[in-house]
Amino acid sequence: MSRLLIKNGRVVDPAANLDQIANVAIEDGIIRQVGANLDASGAEIFDASGCIVAPGFIDIHVHLREPGFEHSETIESGSRAAAAGGFTSICCMPNTDPVNDNATVTSYIVDRARRHAVVNVYPIGAITKDSAGEELASFASMKQAGIVAISDDGRPVMNARVVRHAMEFARALDIPLIEHCEDLHLSAGGNMHEGLVSTRLGLRGIPRSSEDVMVARDILLAEVTGVRYHVAHISSRIAVEMVAFAKARGLKVTSEATPHHFVLADADMLPYDSNYKMKPPLRERPDVEAVTHGLISGAIDAIATDHAPHPGDEKMQEFERCPFGIIGLETALGLALEQLYHPGHVGISHIVKLFTQNPAQILSLDRGTLRPGAVADVTIFDTDRKWTYDVAKSPSKSRNSPFHGRTFTGGPVAAIVAGQVVWSLGGA
Amino acid sequence: MTRGLLDIESISRQDIETILARSKTFQPAPGQPFKRTSILQGRSIVNLFFEASTRTRTSFEIAARRMGAEVLSITSSGSSVTKGESLVDTLNTLGAMRPDAIVMRHAASGAPHFLSRYLPVPIVNAGDGTHEHPTQALLDALTILDRRGTLEGLRVAIIGDIAHSRVARSNIFLLSKFGAQIVLCGPATLLPPQIGQIAPGIELTTDMEHAIRGADVIMMLRVQIERQNEAAFPAGEYFSFYGLRLEHIEAAKPNVIVMHPGPINRGREIASEVADSQRSAILNQVENGIAVRMAVLERVLAQ
Question: Which of A40, A280, B70, B259 would staple B44 via disulfide (CB 3.0–4.6 Å)?
Answer without folding.
Answer: B70
